[in-house]
User: Which sequence fits this backbone?
């Protein structure tokens, strides 16, 4: 066998050399590793430290407690109540449906609860826990806690939820909360408020809840938590308490609201009462009403259909958004214009034997008191149309619309509630813009006559009618109506009152104002509403109104022989006490027939109640 | 008399217990305990058991004369190959890989045995052929290495394959495998990795199949190229480990204070990624200290291999040192995002009894090879009965 080409020992020398190569490779390798470590731990340390902190720290907002809402006497209209909710964390529960099925053997879970749960789970996409049941009773809490071990991922949570203890009574004023929707989210983003709403799910949708959202909401606090890779909190690193929202006190009197709503007894209509001295809204009722508590957990399909599709439109705030022809309640303002323009004098008689002829058409007013001796006082007290036909004809539409515009007709009052309707004050200009065809755009003299007695295109909200009357009562001073009386600082407890805001002034001769108001007082004493207010313990002035729902086209209007939904709307506007008015009110009963028959008696009940219970309050 | 002879022989063999090397191992054991107390305190007691077992294995293996080890090489190798075949046929499959063999009493991982049996086999072969070494001996050696390597790769277990190939490769290298082959091989590897870095994006698009490699291996390589491609999936490990290391800074966050480790952001923090825990809590200072101990251990090991009186001892000793180095390098490079995630533990630190015992036995082999089995003069003195 031939020996290896290399001599004995040469392979040892070569192995030695190669072992030294290994030594060099190892040293280079460790040098590389050390270099990499230097790069990570010294060179890029700052960046990685930030990344590590981002990893471990979770910033959790604490939603502030929403401010509560009280009526003028301190009765709660919206408050936060602690309630027990049953919540499930989908991230921790594998078989959600099975778990709910087993849970329903421990606590009652309605089909509607189940549906709402599924909807919310879809919306939240597995982030955080989802409510299965709200308002657990103490007994249900106890039953669940005893079996809690069988339901990992299901917890009973004590939560603050909104509650409207007055329910229907103040629904349209107070409004309600609802889940923040995409549109509201966009608006919050545009206004840079998303930070303040972190951790908050609800936002004011209607009424005071929406109008004073910023005051009510408060400022969220935060917790800085240390979390592990599974996202579970392990340590509290820092905490800033939330600042609760401001409590609001309204000018509204919930007792009166309740009385009014009950007095309506389900009839469609609205009632607004203002304090003429500062513009505060004493009551604003739209009937029928709804229970705002239904909106809190998300409205069920059945409730939604019942509320939204009802012919009575309970969700619609008629006092603020419903516009109706004012009918004869427009006459005091027309009378004011007659005096202010000099066309009429207070004692000046204007006898036409109850008939006014306009371009060959004879218009009659067959009321007994309107046949002779009709001056401004009598025309108002007995609501004589003929007097106002001739007045309107003399003044012309331009003078009417110019004056009524000063009183704010056709414009929003500026009340601190969202969604107020402006109404329609007819004028040549308005008609030109309203219609497209040339023959319709023209103003006709006959339309001036309709306008003068509050029919035709005229359309105003009950709020506006009360507001306009309060301008008269105030001798021309225009005060902005408001429902907010005061807000309370959550930190100091300081009460910040809201002053009535004067937004304008209409120059009216006090003697003229006095003449109109005195005529209204007689209207309630001996005139169209005399029967309704016979024996009232307080003095008042009032004006009935009957708003035509449709044109009779020559037929005689007979309230007893007309279908209910074709009946005219029944109006009444009033102020009381007559000498020094503390309340100005407007009421409308849809399809209620003549104002003296329906609206005025209702106003009598309301005023009786108000002055009897208010006797205790106002010294 | 007999008893005295054996005692003398053991006493002599105990001289092979190289003090500096064993101190290095004990320092690493201590470091492993400290880091594990932070990473997974409930496992520390088990770790003591593993370390005691490993130390016993090391000391015992050192006592066995190197000649005996060489005699064991062929049987161990054949046993290993048979067991690997058995794994492929009857093995237990977990997480898509078949690595374990259930023998009823114990579950064993034959690939672990191969980490020692393969280099022993090659060393034995070269010792056998020492005086008539020809070029085809290297081919034979390569094939002897390829058999277990392919069997393990089929399990599939890339980490162990790399380690077995490294161990055998080192023996080949020390035995004189020609530079003419080594240089092109290194070049091909370098070009391959370079091309991967440049072309990675295109090759890593889903649906592109890579020859020879499994989908999960492709994923690992691709994740290495760009960990952010799938930050919550495969890349999550690498990113979180890198953040842990980097956030440790110069002096570290302090023992048990590493947020990445303590809050479970670092995956496998007591096994393959334990280095990230150490780096986060003890910083660059701790890393440098650890690498110093490794350097001392491996330089001492290399010195012992060079001093080995027998040629196969040099080959095997060198292979043990080189393989241990590959362990450290691949593990640290993988944890710090320089290499793909392959299952290679950090030697003597990572929790895991099998790997620890294998590594310690390897060092025992090195110690056994480092010193002559018996003094040139025999045990005459003892025989005289003094």
Assistant:
């Amino acid at each position: 066998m031939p020996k290896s080409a290399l001599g004995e020992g040469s392979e040892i020398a070569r192995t030695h050399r190669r072992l030294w190569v290994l030594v060099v490779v190892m040293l280079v390798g460790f040098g590389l590793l050390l270099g990499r470590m230097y790069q990570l731990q010294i060179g890029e340390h700052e960046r990685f430290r930030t990344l590590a902190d981002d990893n471990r720290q979770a910033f959790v907002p604490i939603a502030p407690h929403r401010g509560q809402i009280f009526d003028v006497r301190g009765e709660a209209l919206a408050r936060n109540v602690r309630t027990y909710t049953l919540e499930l964390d989908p991230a921790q529960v594998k078989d959600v449906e099975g778990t709910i099925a087993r849970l329903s053997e421990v606590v009652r879970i309605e089909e509607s609860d189940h549906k709402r749960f599924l909807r919310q789970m879809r919306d939240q996409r597995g982030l955080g826990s989802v409510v299965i049941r709200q308002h657990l009773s103490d007994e249900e809490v106890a039953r669940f806690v005893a079996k809690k071990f069988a339901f990992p991922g299901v917890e009973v949570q004590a939560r603050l939820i909104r509650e409207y203890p007055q329910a229907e009574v103040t629904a349209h004023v107070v409004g309600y909360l609802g889940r923040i929707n995409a549109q509201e989210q966009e608006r919050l983003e545009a206004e840079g408020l998303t930070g303040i709403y972190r951790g908050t799910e609800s936002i004011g949708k209607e009424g005071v809840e929406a109008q004073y959202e910023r005051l009510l909401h408060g400022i969220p606090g935060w917790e800085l938590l240390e979390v592990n890779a599974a996202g579970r909190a392990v340590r509290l690193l820092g905490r800033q308490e939330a600042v609760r929202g401001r409590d609001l006190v309204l000018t509204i009197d919930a007792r009166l609201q309740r009385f009014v709503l009950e007095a309506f007894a389900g009839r469609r209509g609205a009632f607004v009462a203002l304090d003429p001295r500062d513009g505060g809204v004493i009551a604003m009722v739209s009937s029928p009403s709804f229970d705002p508590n239904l909106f809190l957990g998300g409205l069920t399909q059945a409730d939604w259909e019942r509320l939204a599709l009802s012919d009575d439109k309970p969700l619609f705030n008629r006092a603020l958004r419903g516009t109706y022809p004012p009918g004869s309640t427009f006459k005091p303002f027309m009378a004011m214009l007659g005096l202010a323009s000099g066309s009429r004098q207070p004692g000046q008689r204007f006898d036409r034997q109850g008939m006014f002829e306009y371009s060959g058409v004879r218009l009659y007013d067959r009321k007994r008191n309107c046949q002779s001796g009709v001056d401004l006082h009598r025309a108002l007290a007995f609501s004589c149309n003929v007097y106002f036909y001739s007045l309107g004809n003399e003044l012309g539409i331009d003078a009417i619309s110019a004056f009524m515009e000063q009183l704010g007709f056709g414009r929003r009052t500026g009340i601190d509630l969202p969604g107020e309707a402006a109404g329609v004050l007819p004028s040549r200009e308005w008609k030109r813009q309203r219609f497209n065809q040339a023959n319709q755009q023209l103003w006709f003299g006959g339309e001036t006559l309709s306008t003068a007695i509050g029919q035709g295109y005229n359309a105003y909200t009950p709020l506006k009618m009360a507001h306009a009357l309060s301008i008269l009562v105030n001798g021309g001073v225009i005060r902005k109506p408001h429902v907010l009386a005061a807000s309370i600082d959550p930190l100091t407890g300081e009460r910040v009152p809201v002053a009535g805001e004067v937004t304008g002034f209409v120059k009216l001769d006090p003697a003229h104002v006095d003449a109109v108001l005195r005529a209204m007082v007689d209207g309630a004493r001996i005139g169209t509403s005399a029967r309704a207010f016979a024996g009232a313990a307080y003095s008042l002035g009032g004006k009935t109104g009957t708003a035509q729902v449709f044109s009779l086209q020559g037929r005689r209007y007979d309230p007893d022989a007309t279908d209910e939904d074709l009946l005219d709307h029944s109006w009444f506007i009033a102020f009381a006490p007559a000498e020094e008015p503390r309340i100005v009110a407007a009421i409308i009963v849809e399809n209620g027939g003549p104002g003296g028959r329906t609206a005025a008696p209702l106003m009598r009940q309301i005023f009786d109640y108000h002055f009897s219970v208010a006797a205790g309050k106002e010294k | 008399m007999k008893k005295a002879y054996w005692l003398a022989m053991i006493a002599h063999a105990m001289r092979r217990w190289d003090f500096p090397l064993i101190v290095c191992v004990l320092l690493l054991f201590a470091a492993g305990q400290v880091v594990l107390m932070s990473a997974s305190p409930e496992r520390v007691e088990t770790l003591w058991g593993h370390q005691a077992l490993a130390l016993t294995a090391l000391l015992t293996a050192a006592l066995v004369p190197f000649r005996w080890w060489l005699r064991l090489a062929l049987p161990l190798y054949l046993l290993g190959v048979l067991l690997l075949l058995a794994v492929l046929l009857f093995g237990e499959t977990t997480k898509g890989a078949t690595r374990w063999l259930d023998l009823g009493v114990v579950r064993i991982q034959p690939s672990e045995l191969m980490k020692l049996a393969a280099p022993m086999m090659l060393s034995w072969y070269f010792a056998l052929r020492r005086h008539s070494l020809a070029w085809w001996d290297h081919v034979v050696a390569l094939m002897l290495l390829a058999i277990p390597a392919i069997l393990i790769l089929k399990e599939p277990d890339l980490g162990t394959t790399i380690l077995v190939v490294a161990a055998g490769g080192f023996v080949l290298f020390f035995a004189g495998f020609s530079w003419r082959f080594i240089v092109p091989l290194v070049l091909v590897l370098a070009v391959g990795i370079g091309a991967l870095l440049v072309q990675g994006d295109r090759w890593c698009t889903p649906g592109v199949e890579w020859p020879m490699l499994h989908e999960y291996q492709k994923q690992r390589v691709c994740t290495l190229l760009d960990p952010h491609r799938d930050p919550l999936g495969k890349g999550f490990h690498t990113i979180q480990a890198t953040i842990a290391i980097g956030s440790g800074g110069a002096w570290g966050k302090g023992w048990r204070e590493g947020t990445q480790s303590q809050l479970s952001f670092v995956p496998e923090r007591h096994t393959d990624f334990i280095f990230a825990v150490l780096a986060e809590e003890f910083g660059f200072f701790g890393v440098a200290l650890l690498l110093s101990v490794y350097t001392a251990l491996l330089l001492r090991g290399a010195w012992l291999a060079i001093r080995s009186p027998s040629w196969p001892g040099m080959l095997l000793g060198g292979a043990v040192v080189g393989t241990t180095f590959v362990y450290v390098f691949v593990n640290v490079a993988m944890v710090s995002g320089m290499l793909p995630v392959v299952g290679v533990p950090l030697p003597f630190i990572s929790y895991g009894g099998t790997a620890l015992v294998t590594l310690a036995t390897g060092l025992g082999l090195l110690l056994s090879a480092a010193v002559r089995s018996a003094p040139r003069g025999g045990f005459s003195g003892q025989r005289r009965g003094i």
